[in-house]
Fold this sequence. Notes:
The complex is a heterodimer of chains A (357) and B (342).
Chain A: H1 3-6, H2 8-41, H3 51-75, H4 79-91, H5 94-100, H6 107-121, H7 134-158, E1 180-186, E2 192-195, E3 199-202, E4 211-215, E5 219-224, E6 233-234, E7 247-256, H8 276-279, E8 304-305, E9 309-310, H9 311-327, H10 333-356
Parallel strand pairs in A: 1-7
Antiparallel strand pairs in A: 1-3, 2-4, 4-6, 5-7, 8-9
Helix pairs in contact in A: 2-3, 2-7, 3-7, 4-5, 5-6, 9-10
Chain B: H1 2-23, H2 28-40, E1 43-47, H3 54-64, E2 69-73, H4 80-84, E3 85-91, E4 97-103, E5 110-114, H5 121-124, H6 126-133, E6 135-138, E7 141-144, E8 150-155, H7 168-172, E9 174-179, H8 185-197, H9 209-220, H10 226-237, H11 248-253, E10 254-256, H12 260-276, H13 284-295, E11 300-301, H14 303-307, H15 312-323, H16 331-341
Parallel strand pairs in B: 1-8, 1-9, 2-5, 5-8
Antiparallel strand pairs in B: 3-4, 6-7, 10-11
Amino acid sequence: MDTKKLLEKCRSRLVLEGLLKALLVGVIVGFAVDFVFALITAFFTEYFDYWYLVALGVGLGTGLIAGIVIYFLAFRPDTKKIARRIDALGLEERLITMTELENDDSYIARRQREDAKEKLSKFDVKSIKFVLAKSLIVAAIIVGVFGLSMTTVNALVQYEFIPEGGSNIFNPLEPDDAPIMVLYEVTDDTAGWIEGEVEQLVEVGGRTSVVTAVAAEGYMFMYWEEDQKATAERFETNIIDDDEDGIIIFTAYFEEIPDNNEEGDLPTDEPSDVPQEEQNDTFDPDNDPNKEGQGDRYASSNQVMDGKTPYQSVFDEYYEKALEDIQNGNYTEEEAAIIKAYFDILKGGVGADKEGE
Amino acid sequence: MEEQNIQKFSEQCKNIFEQVRRDVIGQNEVVEGTIIAMIAGGNVLLEGVPGVGKTRLVRSLGRVFNLPFSRIQFTPDLMPADVTGTNIIVRDDEGNSKFQFQPGPIFSNIILADEINRATPKTQSALLEAMQEHSVTVMGVSRKLEEPFFVLATQNPIEQDGTYPLPEAQMDRFMFKLIVPMPSLEELVDIVNMTQKTMAEVAEAACNGEDLLMMRKTANQIPVAQEVMEYAMKLCSATHPDSEHATAATKKYIRLGSSPRAGQALISAAKVRALMNGRFNVSYSDINTLAYPVLRHRIKMNFEAIAERVSADEVIRMILDDLGHNGNKDGAKSMIEENKKK
Lengths: 357, 342
């Protein structure tokens, strides 16, 4: 019987193994080409939309050609390869010798062939195990991951699932959305203090809890230095760190309340019966607060409206109404806080007036 | 005819082993190695401590092969003429004096050169021609030795005082150097039991000189695949540190590699071993098994090997491992190695 025919039963198994090896090589070559092509075409997305498909196609085509070529050049089992492989599985070079002595008609060559055939007939084809080099498998996986990743990125860019390369540079050392430290301070510790959390770590766009600048005895809160806000109570919404240093500071400014007792009567909101001229020796008719166009400077005499109604009574009336509305739930929490803050501003002036009283 | 020869070869091998087993207990590798070398036509150097059965094995083989046997006890005062023979003056029938060659003990078929390293180099060298060319030249006259001719030498590895290490040229003429180990416990019991009954050697002739020559001729016909031949030659070449096939172990431990005689010995012996195992081709396993007795005395270790106490056998194993067909039970690995090399 022909040597090739004898080895036929083992050939199909080794052909399959050769094909698998060639496939692995094809995968490596194909995805390597795909990766390189996808990498290069990532810079030319404005010229053509379907570069990812082209890269994939070129990679698959190259891989297929490479696989076929490699199979025929390296992995296709010829008679000698099959013989060598089976010999290594216990036939002790009988088959390789048989293939070499195929055309030898000497007695010893014939005996050798008979011996080889006898052993081959007892050989179990299943004992030929598929052998794929680990390095080949690992290389195929690595190159495959690279190639597919690059192609996927290109596809995602095209369908705008992710921004185009270079438009969004991510710097892990300076995250855009790092929290901002909001500090509430006072200009002078003896003049007042802050009630509430003076150090607050807030996300960008978040809000702080309410703090209140409380004046010490003999002082009054004037404003917050950073934005000249005159409300003692404050909170911040939509926090943005403009100077990007991660810290925002608000400083409460207090002023000492002038000692009116040294100069005379405490200020009062009630109108005086004494004419203005007599109340103050230094009365200046041009600066009379009751005169139209005047009244921007605090004085007990200008704490009335329409010449008779004290501001305090009007304030109290509106204040009580506002409190009632708040209690009735007519306002949201935020609106209620704003309203309270507004009345506090007014109360500051009025309170000072009352303290003067 | 050839069919008969092959049939006879296996039968005679079986008989030879059976008969030798009657006198020698254990030492399977040594017995097999010696018989392979004798069938292949090679000389054997047996190395072992005293009392392990070296001389007994040789004597037993002489009887089994039914061949004339000479024993030469090598001593420092042994002269070359004591080995080869010499011309002596004799008187003829007419009363005239004339030289007549008196053959020495070397004119025999099997020579037991006992403790060969005790003789001086001059006497040792008297064996060189006989071992290689199977002839002896005395006073300018060459005389052929009768075939088959073998030198089976023994030497003691322990005693170094008053010994003369064999020169490389002589070492190379031994086909095999076989290490005769101490018998195992079971073998020791059997040896003592046997010798308590009788010290006499009981092995009988299993074949004769002609049979031996026919066996050699038959074994010589065993084919060797080109790849196996290349592997054997690559192995011999790999023992040379300057060779392109030299492995890392070769470069590290070997000073001088084997001669071409090693290649010849390897293939001749491998053919005999293959046929003895009922195979009609030489395999890698034949080469690997015989690499040790063929190469161990032919490679010269360098200082590093001596300092690290690396033996020749260990270096041979390293070389075989590197060449990729050693202990090859997994064909897959071999295939990868093959592909890598290609």
